[in-house]
From TrEMBL:
The keyword Flavoprotein applies. It is an enzyme of class 2 (transferase). The keyword Metal-binding applies. Keywords: FAD, Flavoprotein, Lipoprotein, Magnesium, Metal-binding, Transferase. Its EC number is 2.7.1.180. This is FAD:protein FMN transferase. Its cofactor is Mg(2+). It catalyses: L-threonyl-[protein] + FAD = FMN-L-threonyl-[protein] + AMP + H(+). One of its GO terms (molecular function) is transferase activity. It comes from the Bacteria. It comes from Lentilactobacillus parafarraginis DSM 18390 = JCM 14109.
Length: 237
């Protein structure tokens, strides 16, 4: 997927670190294997991936794996929900990377990081990929994630800070990968969407780049950063 993934595990002062770190490392190794498998299966740049095989007609919606079918169906649902602003088809081929990234982070987080809460010293965990984050904080903990949103015109500056304990946040725009979204509006520099599920907020962050007039579902909130007369402005969506 061409994405760097990082995770953060927050421990309290009572942690028996040598023993606990060994257990944490085990789960992180499982997470790494999982993410590598996702790339192998869903990358459109690998000739033997399931996505490439589908695009060559070697497998169909009736013969594809359950995971690819879920990605296929979810991408279609996202296209319908966003009135075509989110579209996993590119140049006549199925290219679901825009959905797979958020989905794989959310699933990997649930499978391999949330189980760390079985250890009482673990206060919070997150998983980040390409600047998008799924996070959770133990209910009794005071830990809050301070999330800096990068200035789309200066990737070394923070334009806004968001504080979250649990949930998901996705940002789409030009700061990480330049102008890479098909159909994006020129004056829209960056969008950020906040909710509970990363696969959902990532879809809507991409969709707002294409159609900033879309109304977000009630369970989501977001910011759109626009270029106006040489300045960057933000509005709440």
């Amino acid at each position: 997927m061409g994405t760097v993934f990082t995770s953060q595990i927050v421990l309290d002062e009572t942690a028996e670190k040598p023993a606990l770190l060994t257990k944490i490392e085990h789960f992180q190794n499982l997470l790494e294997v999982y993410l590598e498998q996702i790339n192998t299966r869903f990358s459109p740049y690998l000739a033997d991936s399931e996505v490439s095989r589908y695009n060559r007609g070697e497998i169909t919606a009736l013969t594809m794996s359950p995971d690819l079918y879920f990605v296929f169906a979810s991408s279609l649902a996202a296209k319908l929900a966003t009135h075509d602003a989110f579209d996993a088809n590119y140049n006549g081929e199925f290219e679901p990377s825009g959905f797979v990234k958020g989905w794989s982070i959310e699933v990997g987080f649930s499978k391999f990081l949330v189980p760390l809460f079985q250890f009482p010293s673990v206060q919070a965990v997150n998983l980040i990929g390409g600047g998008d984050m799924q996070m959770e904080t133990r209910e009794q903990s005071d830990w809050v994630f301070d999330i800096g949103i990068v200035d789309p015109t200066d990737r070394y500056s923070i334009i806004k800070t968001v504080q979250l304990k649990t949930g998901a946040i996705a940002t789409s725009g030009i700061s990480e990968r330049g102008h890479h979204i098909k159909g994006a509006v020129d004056d829209i520099l960056q969008t950020t969407v906040i909710g509970q599920a990363l696969q959902e907020v990532d879809v809507w962050a991409t969709a707002l780049m294409v159609n900033p007039d879309l109304a977000l579902p009630d369970n989501l909130s977001g910011f759109i950063f626009t270029r106006q007369e040489g300045e960057t402005h933000a509005k709440i969506s």
